[in-house]
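lol forgot to send this yesterday, sorry. struct tokens for the thing we talked abt
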């Protein structure tokens, strides 16, 4: 089961519909046009279109599996006492005194530029279950980050 926000579910559903209704027919048309050009053994356009179709079908199956197993969580019903999925965590890096804010999200929603980190990331794993005021050590590729949790909101 995958926990998704309503926003993420909507984006994935929209992408799936775009792939099925627009992209797949376009690739099938490209295959048909390439097939009409003759000998398939040396037809680069045909082989390229078939590869594109394979990638497209793989992405469609991937999205279908995610959406079939998705559980939409209403973030407003979550408590903000401990760090968990869909919580916004304000922290201070104790080494640099820099303030940072991240929202813990499903891997499909992660976008560091937007301040959304995957629940599977080293920082999120270190934060899970902790409370405001706790100090955690997160093992990241650059070393160990010592973070103090300033606040947790939903």
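and heres what i got for the seq, position by position
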């Amino acid at each position: 089961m995958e926990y998704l926000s309503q926003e993420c579910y909507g984006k994935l559903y929209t992408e799936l519909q775009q792939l099925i209704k627009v992209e797949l027919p376009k690739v099938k048309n490209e295959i048909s046009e390439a097939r009409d050009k003759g000998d398939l053994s040396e037809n680069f356009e045909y082989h390229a279109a078939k590869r594109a179709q394979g990638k497209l079908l793989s992405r469609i199956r991937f999205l279908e599996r995610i959406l079939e197993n998705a559980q939409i969580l209403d973030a407003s019903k979550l408590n903000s006492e401990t760090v968990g999925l869909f919580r916004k965590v304000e922290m201070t890096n104790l080494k640099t005194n820099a303030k940072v804010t991240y929202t813990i999200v499903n891997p499909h929603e992660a976008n560091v530029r937007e301040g959304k980190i995957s629940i599977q990331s080293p920082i999120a794993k270190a934060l899970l279950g902790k409370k405001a005021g706790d100090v955690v050590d997160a093992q990241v590729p650059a070393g160990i980050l010592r973070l103090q949790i300033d606040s947790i909101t939903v």
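The chain has three helices and seven strands. anyway ping me if u want another try
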